[in-house]
Amino acid sequence: MPVRSSKQSVFRHKYSGLKTSEILTIPILFSLITGFLSSPCYAQKKDNAFLIKNARIFDGTGTTIKGDVLIEGALITAIGPHLKKKSHSKIIYAQGQTLLPGLHDLHTHLSSSANANPEDLGKTYAAYLVHGVTTVNDFSTYGEMFAPLRLLITSGQQIAPHILFASRFSTSHGHGTEAGWGEDFTYEVNAPQTAFFKTKKTLTYHPDMIKVFTDGWRYGHMPDLSDMNGPTLQAITTVSHQAGLPVMTHTVTLRGAKIATAADVDALGHGIGDTLVDEEEIKLLKEHHVAYVPTLSVYEPEDRPRFDENELIALQPVEQQAEQAKIINPPSVRDMDRQRYTIMETNVQRLAKAGIPIAIGTDAGMEGTWHGASTLHEIKLLTKLGFSAAQALKAATANSADIIDKNHRHGRIAVGQIADLILVKGAPDQNINDLDQINQLWLAGREIKLKALRDLLAMSDMTPLPSLKIPEIIYSGKAQNIRYPILTDFGTRPIRRTDAGADRSFLILTRDEETIGRPLLLTAQFADNLNSQGELHHAALEIPLTPGGVLCADVSEFTGIAFTVRGHSTGNYQLKTDHYGSNYPFTISFKAQEQEQEIHIAFSQLTNPNLYRIFNPKTIRTVSFELSGMAGDTEWLELKNIHFYH
Fold first, then answer.
1. What is the reported pLDDT for 47?
2. Which CATH number applies to 99-458: 3.20.20.140, 3.30.70.1050, 1.20.1530.20, 3.50.30.20?
3. If DSSP codes are grouped into helix, strand and coil, which group holds residue 375?
4. For 478-527, what is each residue's pLDDT tens digit?
5. What is the reported pLDDT for 534?
6. Which of 45, 312, 316, 424 has a 20 to 30 Å separation from 31 between CA atoms?
7. Where does the record place the Amidohydrolase-related domain (predicted)?
8. How large is the angle between the packed helices 450-458 and 121-130, nearest 10 degrees?
9. What is the pTM of this model?
10. Which fold is adopted by the domain 467-645?
């Protein structure tokens, strides 16, 4: 098994600061971001120290003792009975309460809301913290988003758990690619040489881990997609481990599990659901030291109430309504899905009995799998499979931490550990339902005010995001970058997106280096199949106005957007703007000719399907140019001199 490098840590961004080189922007935009986010709301005091006295201490490994814990700065510095407080430290009396390491969720999609509402990262982050979850893996972002998200959090503008951002890999036409975001979101690899190259390429974004979709089985709901072969996956794990990064998979079949385990991944995600695990796979898991992260919550049959009364109370209002609707009108569940869930439960039991480390993941963000609440629910599901409360908590703490942090700096209560802690009324290591009574939480030694976060979750308004004033010129063709030759003038990288599906449309983006203005040429090959709803196929160039489209752009000083264009006279073209807080973009159609023409579109001309929503120039995130066409058609569009105008 390859040796993991100890030179890097997946927590380096939290404790050693951000590198400015992580943001692929020219200095003007980076200065805008850092200037806006220069005043942390929750800065860690260097002299921060406190003593927790008379607590039941569950250390994460299964052991519980009675005693005191001293925290100085971000670290636990002493554990024992009758500890003396430091001269500058405060005392927290914890009689009748249990101190635990912060919980983990190793499989989330933070940019998905799990319901029909637009994503609200502030509320999503808060949902994990109020449920005691201090570390999560996020599988819903791509490289350009990592740095601005880290900056948003480390600045104190958003209060969040520790987040490990993952670069994603799959095969051509594999699971994880069918959403239509292409290689801008999920790298497609089919051979070891390509896997070596693209894994090294993604390291320039400083991901915290790697997520690989190895299985294409779609549970009988739709035709299966392609699987990843062993040598290709081994190439990914080799490069990743050399960089000190853990590798988790999407693995749902026994055959896929054997391939992934032999390729030295760190953990299998989701769980084997096509058949019962056999002795060969158990032996492989032990030999290769691979852990198992089932996501029972996302597969649990929904035709029966899933959440108990205390869990329902802790949900956000819109989530409570959704769960109550399922109780009144239970969804139908197919026999094959119920059988698959039973197989998954049995496999968790078999693997745990065989001594394979079981950890916690949920796939939260998928429809009905609520952020934060599902993590606690997943822990409780283990106790229904015969795990003791202490064993289930170990899965959520030490076992999960060991997968993502090979330096073993968190996930336990021990001297030298990072002080991610929760204080819970009662004894959750004996009665798992006491986990609903989280009283206090510390993140790297800093107390997080849970009441403020609960108040935030109860609000209907979106959590505010910074809005940055940006320059007038979007694309002039002048920006240069060795790695990514096509950039906006303020350094963001345009991305391609198409309609979703296994057989989807394709968009080629090139730049004419010989023509003044270096025009962008978009060539769309529309999917050669009939759209299930009889709609046109589409492909688009999406231009983030801030790095990764994470923060909002403030274009209130401008009147509209202008661009020079050539295209097919009968082509279907649209300009779209995506906004924070809106599920639907603002849109307008435009025409193009073989000859160049400059088009001016006022913001007031853009329309939204929600007639009550008004264009807000301070919440815009991206500008898109979309091409549409019939199945099998080819369409093109040439763009240059894209800019806002007064």
1. 60
2. 3.20.20.140
3. helix
4. 887 656 678 999 999 999 999 888 888 999 999 998 898 999 999 999 98
5. 63
6. 45
7. 98-445
8. 130
9. 0.93
10. Jelly Rolls (2.60.120)
